[in-house]
Amino acid sequence: MHPEMNRIIEMGRQLKCSDIHISEGLPMMIRIDGSLEEAPLQPTPEETREMILSMLNEQEKVLLEEGTDIDFAVQTPDGNRQRVNVFKQQGKSAATIRLLNNTIPELQELHLPAILNELAEMPRGLILVTGPTGSGKSTTLAAMINHVNRTRPEHIITIEDPIEYVYEGAKALIHQREVGRDVTNFASALRSSLREDPDIILVGEMRDYETISAALTAAETGHLVMSTLHTTGAAQTIDRIIDACPAASQGQIRTQLAGVLKGVITQTLIPHVSGTGRVPATEILTGTDAALNVIRENKCHQLGTIMQAGAAYGMHTLNGDLSRLVASGMITPENAKKYSNDKKDLENYLF
Predict the structure, then answer these.
(1) Would strands 200-203 and 224-229 be described as parallel, antiparallel, or unpaired?
(2) What is the pLDDT of residues 265-292, one digit of tens each?
(3) DSSP letter string over 234-294?
(4) Cα–Cα distance between 196 and 220 in angstroms, integer?
(5) Is residue 132 a contact partner of residue 139, using CB atoms and an 8 Å limit?
(6) Is it the case that residue 349 has pLDDT exceeding 90?
(7) Is the model's pLDDT at 1 over the cut of 90?
(8) Beta strand pairing status for 81-89 and 92-99?
(9) Do residues 206 and 227 lie in contact, with contact meaning Cβ atoms separated by under 8 Å?
(10) Which secondary structure element, helix H or strand E, spans residue 160, and what is its range?
(11) Which letter does DSSP use for residue 177 in this model?
(12) Is 0.85 topped by the overall pTM?
């Protein structure tokens, strides 16, 4: 990799940014606490192109020219890892670099509810972590996996695209498989993982019917399966999973889901009232009989009521959490409204 690329990544880490956008012929931008701004370093278009291509091997360069986006992770000399996506726009090269933490934080450090520890301790079932891009889903899952790693002698298989956090074995045996390098796709890796004696399977993302079906089968056969979706609430998550399946299979998938779901954690990161740092707001659904019956009967619009009434089971709605963060002076009411998935309902909490 080009030495200048290392310098730019180092700059990004010093400025505590989450992403660097580097595009041939456009200003280099960085994202800090969720906001995009121009970077203090600005390479020329030629330097930019050279730096982007320095991260690719010959085969990847060919694929890029043919119009394929390239996803991979790179490690800089300081031992830190970055997730990179290289793509073309208007015939020119561009890249988005996500700076990953070298150490996996604990759930408490992330200010996430204690119920997540309990969910990670489930012997079997399906746990979903959802939220928009950049909301910390991968970090939350890594913290849950690492909680198991420190406490139980279990076999964990991760299927990722690309591998983000590298785990150091403690009590657990952990195999990390990268799509495109170790395996061809999520679904086939999931199916073969069932023959590899796992206790826990982490699936980077449930993108399609094949992966969803394989994940549900794995959860049904006595494994704990964890995965992510880009959804903004428990009800939307269930609907998205069902909608991703062919019409003829939707009834069966709904029944399977109601049989294995242990929890849906939705999270979003909101600017702290001080102007520096961000605070997680969450929505938690746990797999109580009432919640699973609602899913089975295709009445997901009732999940909000179940979450509001389910505090004893670790549940709360996103609006409930947003109002708590406003009341504790951590976020502004304006930002609560901006990040709410039901603005009208939020007003009942705030006023």
Answers:
(1) parallel
(2) 999 999 999 988 999 999 999 999 999 9
(3) HHHHHHHHHHTS-GGGHHHHHHHHHHHEEEEEEEEEEE-TTSSSEEEEEEEEE--HHHHHH
(4) 16
(5) no
(6) no
(7) no
(8) antiparallel
(9) yes
(10) strand 155-160
(11) E
(12) yes
